[in-house]
Amino acid sequence: MKWLTALVLGAVVGLIMPLFFGGREGFWMDSWAGWGTVRPFANSPGLLFSIPVFLIASFIFRAFFNWHSR
């Protein structure tokens, strides 16, 4: 798997996970997982992006699919 594909998949996971766990009003922002979570657009009512989840998911996708393809 190329790095660009892993980064795109990581970005999707980084957007979906905070929204799945409640968004701004949910427990995502009130727990330790809220660290590193940003609002990409100031006027957006609930869109969140988690930078740590993005980086960790990208690395895991890259490592798993490179290992799996050999």
Question: How would you summarize the topology of this molecule?
Answer:
Blueprint: H1 3-20, E1 37-38, E2 49-50, H2 51-68
Antiparallel strand pairs: 1-2
3D architecture notes:
The mean pLDDT is 87. With 70 residues, the protein is mostly helical. The protein has helices at residues 3-20, 51-68; strands at 37-38, 49-50. It is 51% helix and 6% strand. A two-stranded antiparallel ribbon has the order 1-2. The protein starts with a helix and ends with a helix. The protein has two helices and two strands; from the N terminus they run H-E-E-H. The radius of gyration is 13 Å and the shape is elongated. It has one domain (6-41, 49-68).
What would a concise description of this structure say?
The protein has 70 residues and is mainly alpha-helical. The chain has helices at residues 3-20, 51-68, and strands spanning 37-38, 49-50.
